[in-house]
Specification:
The chain is mostly helical. It has a two-stranded antiparallel ribbon with strand order 1-2. The chain folds into 3 domains: 120 residues, no CATH class; 166 residues, no CATH class; 138 residues, no CATH class. It is built from 31 helices and 2 strands.
Length: 600
């Protein structure tokens, strides 16, 4: 079926749906896996405010970003009175009674379990952190330097953070949600982060959650999401951003005159200037009755932050590449997920996001389907879409292979990992063929989408000792026998053969596919010090022994504190793979082990 026929709907639905639901799904074992505020924004705005409810004792995160619903009570009905009747005094209404009409008790959500995704949607078990100390888990989250080098580790971490989990002992449910959302933002997972903060009722927000919620809504390009929070946020987590948010929300409610008055006061009080004021004016002017078109000029702007990003994304303003390059890669992933940005403007960001695991293989294919269906796309993107159409729906196997080679690039170099993600399901449709020079790339491509059994079909068609054979050996869900040292020693691999052999050994040993005596022999021969003891090894071993799945995932992520796979020590990979397998995450462990060989 032509690619263009697969996606005639909006790219926003494709990307967001694939990420928020499909990408939360099981990793493998099946055929369907898969301060940032402007300067001065941290200062409180001068305003009278009611005494906020006490906040949690947990310390607010230190984002580079410091970014109760308005009471909307229906008027009491009036009755006809005669001209001579004496009006009665206005009855006093108990606020607690009114609150029952705003949100009855049955509709309130408990802080005992918080999160947007359940097991049916691809989340993990609700007792993920049942064995964890809440403060320890929060400390681990704050220490994770995201993004991670592993796509599959990133996918697993996202699923854990977005799962509807029981709040662990010792922490407030809203604060725990804030820590999870803040880590998701650092990973580039803006959609998942917003879903986490929105899974808490606004009346239960803490100052920490107000801070993170502002960043999550802005990273999602949705300033309207700030409206239920603006009044309470201004009192519980004072920041000048809430003053601008109030003006935006007034405009979005259709109160154009009031919004203009608020903007006049903002300019008079110098709450925001320059690009921040321009972007706020653009959102206000685009609201009903705004009647104001604002041209955004990026000249002189030397950095992007979440406020600038969120308002630009909401209004379809293209952010210059030099500004995107001035911030961490996670902002590019936010950009890839922003429905307000044109398809042609976010192609490069979408490929980067797919390589990281923020976008699924299906979502990236759907994005190029939209390119294929459009008439005004850049020439390079249109050519890629045409090759992709041939790769999936070309008439012959040779034609499809030729199209994939064109997408992968020079056969003598390692293809961009995102392009392997792009061709995953096209690779899965190629019949196993002995002697095919593209076997390594085809197997690696299939495994980016968790198509482990499709890859396993190639076992008899690839030479023993090559990369494809090694990846299949690690990823095959039906492999039950243990290998001996001789088989391990025959693996040479391409590129950095010595490092690949150590990583291959770490994967096999962690998965329990080597006999104990062969583990010791190989560890000594390859100089992989799997017996070394450090505070990290002790912590992850203890968490695995206790069945503490949540902390195993967090500690595994901490074991990958490097921007590239080459920086992951084989001994740490061995511990990570073994711990994940111990707590019932063998599918993810297999995918991570195979990914190491594909990306080194």
């Amino acid at each position: 079926m032509p690619i263009s026929a697969r996606l005639r709907v909006g790219v926003a639905a494709a990307a967001l749906g694939a990420v928020a639901i499909a990408a939360f799904g099981p990793a493998s074992g099946q055929e369907r896996p898969e301060s940032i505020l402007p300067p001065g924004f941290g200062e409180p705005a001068a305003q009278a405010s009611p005494t906020p409810r006490p906040s949690s004792s947990a310390t607010a995160p230190t984002p580079g970003v410091t970014v109760s619903p308005d009471t909307m009570v229906q008027p009491l009905p009036t009755t006809s009175v005669s001209p001579t009747a004496t009006p009665s005094a206005m009855p006093t209404v108990d606020p607690a009674v009114l609150a029952q009409y705003e949100m009855p008790d049955y509709a309130r959500r408990s802080l005992d379990a918080v999160g947007p995704v359940g097991p049916r949607e691809g989340g993990l078990d609700a007792d993920l952190f049942a064995q964890a100390d809440g403060h320890f888990a929060e400390a681990l989250m704050r220490r994770i330097a995201a993004p991670l080098p592993s796509r599959w580790m990133s996918i697993l971490l996202r699923r854990a953070l977005a799962t509807r989990v029981a709040t662990p002992a010792g922490v407030d449910g809203a604060d725990f949600a804030a820590e999870r959302a803040w880590l998701l933002l650092r990973m580039g997972e803006s959609v998942a982060a917003r879903a986490v903060v929105q899974s808490v009722d606004t009346e239960d927000y803490t100052p920490k959650l107000f801070q993170v919620a502002m960043s999550a809504e802005l990273a999602s390009g949705d300033p309207a999401g700030l409206c239920p929070l603006a009044d309470a946020g201004a009192t519980q987590a004072p920041a000048r951003g809430w003053v601008l948010a109030r003006a935006i929300c007034t405009a979005l409610r259709g109160e154009a005159a009031a919004a203009k008055a608020q903007m006049t006061a903002i300019r008079r009080r110098n709450v925001a200037t320059g690009i921040d004021l321009q972007l706020t004016q653009k959102v206000v002017g685009a609201a009903p009755g705004g009647g104001q078109a604002v041209t955004i000029e990026w000249a002189g702007v030397d950095r992007i932050d979440d406020w600038r990003f969120g308002l630009a994304a909401a209004t379809g303003v293209t952010i210059p590449d030099p500004l995107l390059a001035s911030v961490g890669p996670q902002v590019r992933y936010w950009y890839a997920l922003s429905p307000g940005i044109g398809v042609g403007d976010r192609i490069a960001a979408a490929e980067a996001a797919a390589g990281q695991g923020v976008l699924s293989s299906n979502a990236l294919v759907d994005l190029y389907a939209a390119v294929d269906a459009a008439d005004d796309m850049p020439g390079v993107a249109s050519a890629t879409a045409s090759d992709l159409r041939t790769a999936y729906a070309g008439g012959s196997v040779d034609a499809r292979l030729a199209a994939m080679r064109q997408l992968w690039g020079d056969a003598t170099t390692q293809p961009p990992y995102a392009r392997l993600v792009l061709t995953a399901r096209a690779a899965g449709r190629i019949p196993a063929r002995i002697g095919l020079s593209d076997a390594d790339r085809l197997v690696a491509s299939m495994l980016t989408a968790g198509l482990d059994r499709s890859a396993a079909r190639w076992r008899m068609a690839v030479p023993e000792g090559g990369d494809a054979w090694a990846m299949i050996t690690l990823a095959d869900p039906d492999a039950g026998e243990r290998l001996n040292y001789g088989v391990l020693s025959r693996y040479s691999g391409s590129g950095d053969a010595a490092l690949k052999q150590r990583l291959f050994f770490a994967g096999l040993a962690g998965l329990g596919r080597l006999a104990p005596e062969d583990v010791e022999r190989a560890a000594e021969a390859l100089d992989v010090r799997i017996g070394a003891s450090t505070p990290w090894t002790q912590a992850i071993d203890r968490a695995a022994a206790n069945g503490d799945q949540g902390n195993v995932i967090l500690l595994a992520a901490i074991g990958m504190q490097t921007p590239h796979w080459r920086g992951v020590p084989p001994a740490m990979l061995y511990r990570i793979i073994g711990a994940l397998r111990t707590v019932g995450l063998e599918g993810e462990a297999r995918m991570i082990a195979a990914e190491a060989l594909a990306r080194v």
